[in-house]
Amino acid sequence: MKRQRKIQRAVFIGTIWLALAAAPRELPSQTLDKMHLGYSGTGINNYVLEMGKRLGIFRKNGLDLEVVYVNSGSLLSQALIAGTFDLSMSQGSEAMIAKLRGADVRMVAVIANRFNHVYLAAPSITSFKQLKGKKVAVSRFGSGSHFQTNLALKEGGLDPEKDVTILQIGNSGARITAILSGIVDGTIMAADFVPKAKREGFNVLTDLADTKVEYPFLSLNMLGSYIDKNLKLVKALIKSMSESIRALQTDSANAKAAIRMALKTDDAETIDYALMRSIRVLDRRPFPTPGGIKTVLDELGSEVKGKTLRFEDFVDLRALRELEKEGAFKQ
Q1: 306 Cβ neighbours under 8 A, 6+ residues apart
Q2: ∠ CA 179-217-99, rounded to 5°
Q3: Helix (H/G/I), strand (E/B), else coil: 305
Q4: What is the pLDDT along the chain (331 residues), one digit of tens a residue?
Q5: Strands ordered across the beta sheet of 117-121
Q6: CB 138 within 8 A of CB 75
Q7: What are the beta bridge partners of residue 66?
Q8: All domains of the chain, ordered by start, with CATH?
C-alpha cells in the first residue's frame, strides 16, 4: 500500500514537472531600437506600415518604429535634412532633388518602382485637352504630386508651364475638396480612392500604373551620416518592410483589416481595389532601378543641366546587398 502511494506521488510530481516544462515561459523583454519615420502621401505606404504594426513585424526585427505623417513630400524632405526624422518614406524624386541641392540624402530601398496614382478630373472634364486654361492642384511645388502632375499632363499633350495654372492645395483630401468646390478642375490622386471618386462622378483621365515608365514611387530615404552609423538598423527596417509587403500580398484577411484601418473605411469595393493595387505595385525585393532614376533626371531638366550624374549618386545599396546575400528576399 505504501509502495503504491509512493508510486502515485512520484507520478503526480512527474506530471507537475512535465506541465511546468511544457508551459510557455515569459521571455526576457527584447531591447528595441527606436527609429523615427516620417511619411507623406496616402495609400500603399499606410498599408505597409499598418501591416507591419498589426503583425508585430517591426518589433520582431528589433525596431520600435515611431511613425509621423507630414502632408507634403517637400516639407518631409526638409524635416529629414533638419534631423527631425531618421528616415522619410516618400517619392524618390523628392530625395533626388534634395541630393541635387547639396544634401546627402540617399535612397536605401524602393518598395514601389512604378506609379500607383491616377489623374482625376471634375465631372465636366473628360479629356486632358479640356484642362487647357484651367487650374489644377498639387500638394506643394517640388513635391512628388507636382512631379507626377507634370508627367501626366505631358502624356496628355499639355505643357504644364503654359497650358494650366498649378496651385498648391495640400494633401489628397484638400485637393478633392478643391475640385468639389470648383477651385480646380484636376489633380493627381492615389488610385485607392478611384471607386469612391467614380461614384461621385469624377473622371479618371489616365492611370499612371498602366504606363511602362519606371519611377521610384515609394522610397526609403536617409542621410548618409545616419546610414554609416546605423547600417544594422537600416537592414532591420528594409527587412521589416519586405516582410510586411509579403504579408500584405499573401494574407488577405489581415491585409483587408490593415487597409480598412489605414483608410478608415468599411467600403468593401474600396478595400478590395486598394488590395489589388498593393499586390500589383509593391516590390518584396525593394531595389531601386536605374530606369527609375533616369525618369526623374529626365523630368528635372534644368535642375540637372550641365551635371554628370549616375545611378550610384542617389542610392546606397549596402543594406540591400547584405540582405540579398543573407537570403532575406527569397521567400
Answers
A1: none
A2: 110
A3: coil
A4: 444 444 444 433 343 333 333 344 434 456 899 999 999 877 899 999 999 999 999 999 999 999 999 988 888 999 999 999 999 999 898 999 999 999 999 999 999 998 888 999 999 999 999 999 999 999 888 777 888 899 899 989 999 999 999 999 988 778 888 988 899 999 998 888 888 888 889 999 999 888 888 999 999 999 999 999 999 999 999 999 999 999 999 999 999 999 999 888 899 999 999 999 999 999 999 999 999 999 999 888 777 776 888 999 999 999 999 999 999 998 6
A5: 165-168, 135-138, 186-190, 117-121, 203-207
A6: no
A7: 36
A8: 33-113+215-325 (3.40.190.10), 117-210 (3.40.190.10)
Identify whether the C-beta of residue 249 lies closer than 8 Å to the C-beta of residue 255.
yes
Q: pTM for the whole thing?
A: 0.81
CA atoms within 13 A on the CB side of 14: 6
Is the Cα torsion angle 203, 205, 208, 212 positive or negative in sign?
A: positive
* Angle, helix 268-281 to helix 231-250, in steps of 10 degrees: 130
